[in-house]
Amino acid sequence: MSQKMTPHIPSHQLTERWFLVNADGQIVGKMATTIAKLLMGKDQPQFNPAVDARTNVVVINAEKIKFSGKKLEDKKYYHHSGYPGGTKVKTPQDVLGSSSPARVLIHAVTGMLPKNKLRQVMLKRLKVFVGDKHPHTGQNPVELKIKN
Questions:
Q1: Which domain holds residue 26?
Q2: Which of 2, 89, 105, 139 would be 18's cystine partner, CB 3.0–4.6 Å?
Q3: Is 1 a member of any domain?
Q4: pLDDT (tens digit, 9 = 90+) per residue, 75-134?
Q5: Alpha carbon distance 29, 17 (integer Å)
Q6: Which residues does 66 contact at the CB level (< 8 Å), separation at least 6?
Q7: Distance in Å from the first CA to the final CA of the chain
Q8: Number of structural domains, the chain?
Q9: Considering only CA atoms, which of 29, 49, 26, 24 is closest in space to residue 39?
């Protein structure tokens, strides 16, 4: 008895897709899960975890994201310099008020992507911008509405 195998489409045969997400008033966690699913290609019928989905996501207004509950004050981001006593602790409020508020969303999406060699490939396809201007208008990204 022979069974038919499901054909897997290699990444070079997939068409490149572009999405535009407006982060104004969106909750970080819900937005990050949606973006992570798009970057992995889980919304496509030919999903294969071993193949790059060739999906690009452009996020604008990253400085206007929101946290649910008291996470804005209670959540902490840790970083260690490698030296004794070199632990640095920041809250999302500190990061959003700094020169790079997009790091909050990038950090959230990074934690939701698979921990393998494709993670960096997927993260390169995530473009996060402060403000509503971005240089990817030539790709005609499809605007994506995320429900709160």
A1: 17-67+100-132
A2: 139
A3: no
A4: 999 999 999 999 999 999 999 998 899 999 999 999 999 999 999 999 999 999 999 999
A5: 23
A6: 25, 26, 27, 28, 72
A7: 49
A8: 1
A9: 49
What's the CATH number where 37 sits?
3.90.1180.10
C-beta of residue 108 within 8 angstroms of C-beta of residue 32: yes
This prediction has a pTM of 0.91
The two three-digit tokens of residue 108, written as one number: 């959230």
In a domain, 138, yes or no: no
Could you tell me the two tokens for 107? 């950090």
Backbone angles phi and psi of 108, in degrees to 5? -65, -45
Q: Which helix (H) or strand (E) holds 143?
A: strand 142-144
Tokens of 95: 């990061």
Radius of gyration of the chain (CA): 18
Laid out side by side, the sheet with 126-128 consists of 126-128, 55-60, 17-22, 142-144
